[in-house]
Amino acid sequence: MTNKKLVGVIGLLPILMVLGNSMLLPILPSIEKGLHIDERWSGWILSSFTIPAAVCIPFIGFLSDRFGRNRLIQFSLWIILAGSILCAVSAWLKEPAFLFMSGRGLQGVGAAGTTPLAIALAGDLFSGEERSEVLGALEVFNGLGKVFAPVIGAGLTIFLSWNHVFWIFPLLCLVILFGLNRNIKKNNDQKKLQGVSEYARDLAAVFASKGLLLLPLYAIGGIGLFLLFGILFFLSYHIENTFHIDGFFKGFSFMFPLGAMTISSTWSGKRLKTDEGRGWYYIKWGIGLMTFSLGALIFFHSLGSLLFFITVCFGGLGLVLPVLNTFVAGSVDEGERGFVVSMYGAVRFIGVAVGPIAYSFWKEDIVQMYRLTFMCSVLNVLLYLILTKRRDRVFRPGFN
Which of 72, 87, 172, 365 could form a disulfide with 103 if both were Cys (CB 3.0 to 4.6 A apart)? Predict the structure, then answer.
């Protein structure tokens, strides 16, 4: 890898996005009490961040294709910084909910320019085996953020009130801004301004030729993230309300499934750099592990069984995500990559946004919740079967 510092800076962008929700998972009950809201509305603490991000991601991708990734990333970081300050100071008010949700919305708008543009930027700056390695590394950074974010959130609230966790975002934003200015030359971010109609024609041609593959890849990623954050949302309340585990130990319990996902992402990403064709096998086995483990949860409900099977599930998801990143980013040229990758990011974010809302209703009937979860994983099996029939006709990874 030619520029490890640059990869490290770009890798902080997925961590920043992950912190937006994962750090709050173990402290949702505390935030809920601080905002004086009902438990039924607590899912919106997460979704007020993810829904604006999902809406803005396609526009951010379009703008980055025209005006440059680095410029849009830096603009997004300043928006996150402002939104985070609003969330932090909202606790000083008697009625903090409105200001808090406004800050979360701003965080979400800014987050639209983090992970999707990090993937697109890596696709622009690297090629071949190096691109696969860097894209795999981004998913590892994403996984590491998910592993440590709940522990950080739970650990800080032991000594400080819940709103202090939001001061981490401005600090990280400033570090990334400094790193981007030091490691990306301005001439690397120059874009040839293309007419909107010409740009639209190019995108239409891309989806006409490769949409049959891109759309199932989008859907697999979206369903995977829907299950990930939905299950984690359920786990946060289930551990505290049923087993009365709180604080640091509650955050620590998240490390098992998220750690498995990080390890498998690292393993998958490293092997993709030498043979992208292996990615189809990783998708197959990853979806298979998810389907098996989520099906088993219908019959086994103890805390130990729950942690074991979701650890297997997230390990399977970790195999799949680096492959999706590589296939989507490598399927198009630089001129359309921002939009195509951002659409993929938008679908993933829709999954993240809808997951907690759906599971906030589903958790009222746990057995039925497990059945619905298993049906979602079966849908991914069907999408994979569709992909196997289309992949050779539509797309062979590594050509772009």
Answer: 87
Q: How far is the C-alpha of 140 from the C-alpha of 205, rounded, in Å?
A: 32
Instruction: Kindly report, residue by residue over 195-224, the tens digit of the pLDDT.
Output: 556 666 666 776 676 767 788 889 999 999
**Rounded to an integer, what distance in angstroms lies between the CA atom of residue 361 and that of residue 255?**
25
H and E: helices and strands count for the chain: 15, 0
Tens of pLDDT, residue by residue over 214-262, are 888 899 999 998 998 888 888 877 776 665 555 555 566 777 888 888 8
Quote the tokens at residue 244: 């009365």
Rounded to whole angstroms, the Cα distance separating 59 from 112 reads 9
Nearest C-alpha neighbor of 16 from the set 181, 176, 189: 176
Amino acid, single-letter form, for residue 227: L
Give the total number of structural domains in the chain: 1
Round to the nearest angstrom and report the end-to-end CA distance of the chain. Answer: 19
Residue 193 lies in a domain: no
Domain limits at 124? Answer: 8-186+205-391
Q: Where residue 288 sits, what CATH number does that domain have?
A: 1.20.1250.20
The CA distance from 316 to 336, in Å, is: 30
Is the CB of residue 28 less than 8 Å from the CB of residue 235? no
Distance of CA 5 to the CA centre of its chain: 22
Q: 180 with 70: CB under 8 angstroms?
A: yes
Q: How many CB atoms lie within 10 A of CB 257?
A: 27
Give 290's pLDDT tier (boundaries 50, 70, 90): very high
DSSP state of 184: S
Report DSSP letters for 260-278, one per residue: HHHHHHHHHHHHHTT-GGG
How far apart, in whole angstroms, are the C-alpha atoms of residue 6 and residue 130?
Answer: 13
314's enclosing H/E stretch is helix 303-329
Side chain identity at 333, as an amino acid letter? D
Report the pLDDT value the prediction gives residue 345, as an integer from 0 to 100. 78
77 in any annotated domain: yes
